[in-house]
Amino acid sequence: MIEARGLTRTFRSGGRPLEVLKGVELEISAGQFVAVAGPSGSGKTTLLGLLAGLDRPTAGRVIIDGQDLDALTEDERARFRVNRVGFVFQTFHLLPTLTALENVLVPLELAGSDGTARASALLDRVGLGDRAHHYPVQLSGGERQRVSLARAFANRPRILFADEPTGNLDRETGARVAALLEQLNRDAGTTLVLVTHDGELAARADRILRLEGGRVVEQGRMDVG
What we know:
Layout: E1 2-13, E2 16-28, E3 33-37, H1 44-51, E4 59-64, E5 67-68, H2 74-84, E6 85-89, H3 100-110, H4 116-125, H5 141-152, E7 159-163, H6 171-188, E8 191-195, H7 199-202, E9 207-212, E10 215-219
Parallel strand pairs: 3-8, 3-9, 6-7, 7-8
Antiparallel strand pairs: 1-2, 1-4, 4-5, 9-10
Helix pairs in contact: 3-4, 3-5, 4-5, 5-6
């Protein structure tokens, strides 16, 4: 499903090159739940952005379902993300002027689909059917993240990328959101790649990958942070 070959990403810092990722090699099979761990600043979010096609590598390739993302134009990459990828972010990224239902409808509308029934069903699934017409400011942090989960699954993505999805939530709320994310993912058969500092959340994954020295290594289920 997902391959990274010699994946390198270099940024400029103080006029000098800063190599965050150094020839990353990885393979993720369809339907796997993979957690990416490592210390702050180790490049976890950078790696996620490259795998999702939100950024381009300095060198190397990302191949998804046999498609080299670097061979796509920006418009083709945008269509790829709309049609095949879902996202969950730490800061929710809900549009403040849209209701919960309208936020879930956004990816469906971008794909040219009339998905009101599906959006409503997803809000029911995450326990927010009675909050469909509330705006983000009227929702708690846990509720907003549940709306973002419903939105992420709206287009039936083959791959879901999640960046610290429980990072802005208290421990109890985070655990509930993590359990819901895992349940939705298993039911949909989605490939899930998740960045987290949370050892309990990472322990739910099929595999844990750790970033060390700009490269990815397999790791057990302890000492994630």
